Amino acid sequence: MRSTQHILKPEGSAGISAGRIILYIVAILLIAMFLLNFLSSFGVGGCIGIIEINGQISTYKGYGLISSSEVISLLKEAEERPDIRGLVLVMNTPGGSAVASNEIYSYLKEMKKPTVTYISEMAASGGYFVSLGSDYIYSNPYAITGSIGARTGWVIDLSKWLNNTGINMTVIKSGEMKDTGEIYRPMTEEEIEVYQAIIDEIGGSFLNLTIKERSADSKFSNRSIELISDARLFTGRQAYEIGLVDALGIRQDAINKAAMMAGLDRDPNVCVLETKKDFFTTLFNEMGKGIGETLSSKLSFNSLKIQ
């Protein structure tokens, strides 16, 4: 009789094979991740970051406000993320605080990655100030921009009304101008001159910054300086004609421009960067937005909304 030999496999050999397979899979994934990061450095893969600036620019947070600290935090995230190759700022703001606008502009100016501003609806005053920090400015032809200057509107004189109601205010102060701008008395000519000097300094700095940043544009001329010196508004097309913006187009055009500057193909992937808000903050913001939009729709004259 022919004897049959049986080969006995040691116990646990199947477990060893499965373990090796898992190690192989992990190794392949790590190599793939390395290759993706390596290739992205040559323009393969990656995305264009999108940051939307909606509302009034401020140094503090609140409904209808966009704080400089929030924007700078998003700019920092875009700069540090390896998958984000370039950045587009989508602007829809009437402006706001000179301090907050300068903070965002200064951080944007120092970014290493290519940056493009897209003026969607409006980038006036502080909004245009921020835009000057980017490498390239796109504008929708029908957007509103400009208002290169400064103003203050918080000084209200209710002295006549208070006198008629019999209300008297006694103020003890350490200097003649310590209560400048209070509602119970009109400002003196000297006080107005002091405030005007402050506004002139801020507005003049803004104007000089615009001249410095836009002087390389062949369309920016002495006529441009003359037009922007009275802090008027412009449409996107008018702004392009005098050299305040680099090109006209839509949002996708700005994204494609950022992609080109970053070495990516047209129609790249986009990565939207947003400030994370808790549930209740989001809820109350949406409630406030709904109330504001309802009032805006009711307060109209000949289809022109009061906003």
What does this structure look like?
The protein is an alpha/beta fold and 307 residues long. The longest helix has 28 residues, at 13-40. Strands 1, 4, 5, 6, 7, 8, 9 and 10 form an eight-stranded mixed β-sheet that branches. A two-stranded parallel ribbon has the order 2-3. The protein has a two-stranded antiparallel sheet with strand order 11-12. The chain has helices at 13-40, 68-80, 98-109, 126-131, 159-164, 189-214, 222-228, 236-241, 251-262, 279-298; strands at residues 47-54, 56-58, 65-67, 84-93, 115-124, 136-139, 144-146, 233-235, 247-248, 269-272, 300-301, 304-305. The radius of gyration is 29 Å and the shape is elongated. It has two domains: 45-147 and 232-292, Alpha-Beta Complex (2-enoyl-CoA Hydratase, Chain A, domain 1), CATH 3.90.226; 149-214, no CATH class. The protein contains ten helices and twelve strands.
Keywords, separated by commas or semicolons:
18% strand; 2-enoyl-CoA Hydratase, Chain A, domain 1; 10 helices; elongated; 307 residues; disordered C terminus; alpha/beta; 2 domains
